[in-house]
Amino acid sequence: MALLSIPGGLLIAIEGIDGAGKTTLAKVIADELSANGAKVALSKEPTTGPWGMKMRESAAAGRLTPEEELRLLILDRRQHVDELIAPALGRGEVVILDRYFPSNVAYQGAAGIDIPDVLKANEFAPRPDLLLLLDLEPPVGLGRIRARGDAPNHFETSENLKRCREIFLSLNLPRTVVIDASSPAATVAAQAIQHVHEALARKTAKADGASPATAE
Asked: Is this structure's pTM higher than 0.70?
C-alpha cells in the first residue's frame, strides 16, 4: 500500500498503563508506515515543551495536586495540538502519539478528578482516527519497568495502575481497539498494524466518497 498523503491526515493514539509497550509499538507502526511512503509525525505526551517538562519532573520529584497536573497537561496539549498535531494532519501526515488525552483522563481520574470534568477540559483536542489501547495487568507492567532497569515512579504503583486500567477500559471512546499487551511483541505489532491499515482504508474511502466496507 503506497501512501504519500492522506486527506485530512490520520491520528493514531496509543494508550495503556505504564509498561504496556506503547513506545515500542509507536516506533514499529511509524517504521511500517514510513516504509510504505507515508509521512509520519511521531510524538508523545507529556511533550518536552515547558509545560510537559514540568509534568515529567513531577514524576521523579513527587506528584503535584491532581488539579495542577490537569492544568499543566492541558497547557501542554494545547501547545502540542497547535504546533504539531493540527499542522501535521493538515499536511496529510500520519500522527502517532505515545499517550494522548485518554491518559490524562485515566491518571488524573484515578487521582480523584471527576472523569467528565477531565473529558470536558480536553474537548479541544482532535479525536483519534484510531485509539490502540494496550491492556495489561499492573503487576506485569511493573515487572517490565523493573526489567528495563527503571524504578517505578510516583505514578507507577500497583494500586494507581489498577485504577488507571479500569478507567481506560471504561471510557468506550470511538474507534478504540483493545489489544492484549501480554501477548508477544510481534503479535501485538501485527494486530496493531492490521487495525492501522483498516483505519487508513476508512479514511481514504471517506475522502474518495466510497463506503468503508468496500475499501476494506
From this structure: yes
